[in-house]
């Protein structure tokens, strides 16, 4: 016998499985993001015995069907997996079966097997899909879901009453498949659907048939206005008005959602959300909460709903939101206390993850932007589910005790404990002006690398967006256009920041430009431009940002990129250096003023940053090089020779200082200027 450790071929069941999963996951009507799982069974040659061995490939824990790859599959020996039935100790101890899956792995086993592995392995079909389609969950959460299932699907789809995912649910579904040979799948009460087939194509067709048949039935039989008639005064505000109101409320709402731990936010004013909030039944339905386990793990059992009409002022809204947040936290604590048992994990915080504002939209929150965005997507899924269920029947999600058993499941807690430690600036939202290149670009990159969400602002939208795209997806960095010398543009920039990430924590006043002229050559326009961009610009940015920082009540950082020239006196620099000195004093003034809000204000004094600097590239460098009689390309090295340390200063050196000033270590430092100039004695601070 010859050793044969095979690698996958296009004929492999695993290959078909990945294609099918990617197709199913690509269409949001089929399942929520990262929701559901798929599997295939097949035979391969066991490299140890040379004999055929039956294997189960199943999507492992975590990951999304739409982007599933081979690495996301767990591979188990089917005979061993099925032998677990013999040692199964009963539903009370079903969680122990997850650890037992590790003893069934084939080879290295691939991804970690998920809780749903039992359902896939035990059902006697070569291919199985388990999905969370809005249309299917609408039937699954209808009060008369069992009768509806029979009416819609006849004997082809079987109703399975709610049961928490696990080994027992796998046994139940396996039994159903045996008992009802004509069935192609089932509706899992309160949860989703499972379908099967003897070929991958048949399984996929069965899944899609269930999803589309349910959707068509809802479309045809739903009563009009499933959320009830319009609620007077709750209709959506016009787009510009609702976004302005959302921006004005964002700081307060994020602060209220961050009482236990800081979170990043996502805002959406999609039609589904606005329609839901504009209807009479939304308070009752929102209070019932979400049902599919995937949904409420990300959204919490229920959202916080502002009970004021769209016309309510920002002041009225913030006052009421503060009251509602207190009530929400008490209510959540009471829910925890009602259901927690001796070995339940500790409460994970009582703040809402979804906040609904009639006429305006929805804020959702999470440990990072992607998590916050997905929480919002899941609430939209839940709205679709409620619309379907209410259209046909009455929405009846799983009961609260079951939600608690899922939310505080020991297996869920273990998953959270395995998460990597967050980066130092995780959850912090940064705004860097003049960040399309040069020092600002390096600062934006560094803050993002340390875990912050970053808004890259600059004069050119195109350049700002290009710089942001280089940092990462829009979950990490977004580019906005703003002239910092224009009050309205600055407000729009701060609004765009809070609408992109829910709030603001860290502002870097970096935008600038430099004209090197003697006193007599300096025109009034030169003076005004230098002061408009740097002195007035950073004042406007700090003021607009401070409003958000104060509303949030979460502290914050303001950093000024000032200059060695704010203290150093030399010729040909009157307008630039005076504006830099103005910025430097803003640091001290604002450090004194904003300290009571926990906001630190510090500055960095760079010098001689030639590489990457637009200031040097646009004439200033050539001019300086000519003055010193060196080639322009050697200017950085020339400056280095003038320093005490004889080192060239790079944009990254300035970015390092910014990170240190707002990172975890300098938590007790405000009003400080850090020189990053490789040592210039004439600019020493004292
Ligand atoms: N390069 C150095 O040696 C040095 C030394 C000391 C201080 N600084 C300061 O560092 C900051 C960044 O300079 P850099 O060297 O990276 O230059 P840079 O020209 O590469 O970057 C400045 C950025 O600010 C932007 N900007 C200009 N006017 C703006 C406005 N009105 N609104 C918004 N954005 C505007 C520009 O488009 C540019 O992207 C400036 O404040 C500068 O004064 C630089
Ligand atoms: Zn599920």
Short summary of the structure?
This protein is α/β, with parallel strands linked by helices and 686 residues long.
How would you describe the overall organization of this protein?
- By secondary structure, this protein is an alpha/beta fold.
- The protein is 46% helix and 15% strand.
- It has 24 helices and 19 strands.
- The strands form 3 sheets. The protein has an 8-stranded mixed β-sheet, with helices on both faces. A 7-stranded parallel β-sheet has the order 15-14-13-16-17-18-19, with helices on both faces.
- A hairpin with a 3-residue loop joins strand 11 and strand 12.
- Helix 9 packs across helix 19 and helix 17 packs across helix 24.
- The chain is elongated and about 95 Å long.
- The protein starts with 12 loop residues before the first helix and ends in a 10-residue tail after the last strand.
- Bound molecules: nicotinamide-adenine-dinucleotide (NAD) and zinc ion.
- The site of nicotinamide-adenine-dinucleotide has 29 residues, from helix 17, helix 20 and helix 22.
């Amino acid at each position: 016998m010859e050793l044969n450790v095979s690698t996958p071929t296009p004929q492999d069941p695993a290959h078909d499985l990945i294609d099918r999963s990617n197709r199913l996951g690509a269409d949001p009507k089929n399942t929520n993001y990262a929701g559901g799982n798929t599997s295939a069974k097949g035979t391969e040659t066991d490299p140890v015995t040379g004999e055929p061995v039956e294997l189960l490939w199943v999507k492992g824990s975590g990951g999304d069907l739409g982007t599933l790859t081979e690495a996301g599959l767990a591979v188990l020996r089917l005979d061993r997996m099925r032998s677990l039935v013999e040692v199964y100790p009963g539903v009370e101890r079903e969680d122990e079966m997850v650890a037992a899956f590790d003893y069934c792995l084939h080879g290295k086993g691939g991804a970690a097997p998920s809780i749903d592995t039992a359902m896939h392995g035990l059902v006697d079909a070569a291919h199985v899909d388990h999905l969370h389609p809005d249309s299917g969950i609408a039937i699954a959460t209808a009060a008369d879901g069992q009768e509806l299932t029979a009416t819609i699907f006849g004997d082809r789809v079987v109703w399975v009453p709610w049961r928490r995912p696990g080994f027992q649910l796998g046994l139940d579904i396996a039994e159903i498949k045996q008992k009802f040979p004509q069935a192609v799948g089932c509706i899992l009460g309160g949860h989703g659907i499972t379908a099967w087939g003897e070929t991958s194509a048949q399984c996929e067709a069965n899944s899609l048939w269930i999803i589309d048949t349910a959707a068509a039935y809802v479309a045809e039989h739903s009563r009009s206005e499933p959320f009830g008639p319009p609620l007077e005064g709750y209709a959506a505000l016009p787009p510009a008005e609702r976004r302005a109101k959302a921006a004005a409320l964002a700081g307060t709402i994020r602060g209220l959602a961050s009482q236990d731990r800081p979170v990043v936010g996502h805002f959406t004013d999609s039609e589904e959300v606005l329609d839901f909030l504009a209807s009479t039944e939304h308070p009752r339905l929102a209070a019932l909460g979400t049902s599919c386990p995937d949904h409420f793990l990300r959204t919490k059992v229920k959202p916080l709903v502002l009970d004021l009409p769209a016309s309510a002022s920002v002041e009225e809204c913030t006052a009421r939101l503060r009251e509602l947040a207190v009530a929400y936290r008490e209510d959540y604590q009471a829910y925890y206390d009602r259901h927690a048992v001796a070995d339940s994990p500790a409460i994970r915080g009582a703040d809402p993850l979804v906040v609904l504002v009639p006429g305006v939209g929805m804020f959702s929150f999470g440990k990072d932007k992607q998590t916050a965005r997905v929480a919002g997507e899941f609430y939209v899924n839940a709205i679709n589910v409620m619309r379907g269920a209410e259209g046909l029947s009455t929405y009846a999600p799983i009961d609260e005790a079951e939600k608690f058993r899922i939310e505080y499941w020991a297996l869920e807690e273990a998953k959270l404990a395995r998460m990597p430690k967050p980066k130092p600036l995780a959850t912090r939202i940064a705004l860097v002006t003049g960040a399309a290149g040069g020092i600002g670009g390096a600062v934006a990159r560094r803050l993002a690398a340390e875990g912050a969400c970053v808004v890259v602002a600059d004069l050119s939208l195109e350049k700002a967006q290009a710089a942001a795209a280089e940092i990462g997806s829009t979950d990490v960095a977004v580019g906005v256009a703003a002239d910092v010398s224009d009050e309205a543009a600055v407000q729009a920039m701060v609004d765009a920041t809070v609408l992109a990430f829910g709030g603001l924590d860290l502002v870097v006043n970096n935008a600038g430009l430099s004209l090197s002229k003697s006193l007599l050559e300096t025109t009034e326009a030169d003076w005004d431009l230098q002061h408009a961009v740097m002195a007035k610009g950073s004042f406007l940015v700090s003021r607009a940002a401070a409003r958000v920082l104060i509303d949030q009540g979460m502290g914050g950082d303001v950093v000024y990129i000032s200059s060695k020239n704010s203290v150093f006196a030399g010729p040909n620099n009157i307008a630039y250096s005076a504006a830099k000195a103005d910025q430097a004093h803003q640091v001290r003034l604002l450090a004194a003023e904003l300290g009571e809000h926990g906001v630190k204000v510090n500055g960095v004094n760079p010098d001689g940053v030639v590489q990457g600097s637009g200031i040097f590239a646009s004439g200033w460098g050539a001019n300086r090089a000519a003055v010193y009689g060196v080639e322009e390309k050697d200017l950085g090295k020339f400056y280095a020779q003038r320093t005490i340390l004889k080192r060239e200063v790079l944009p990254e050196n300035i970015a390092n200082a910014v990170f240190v000033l707002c990172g975890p270590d300098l938590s007790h430092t405000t009003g400080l200027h850090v020189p990053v100039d490789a040592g210039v004695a004439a600019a020493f601070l004292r």
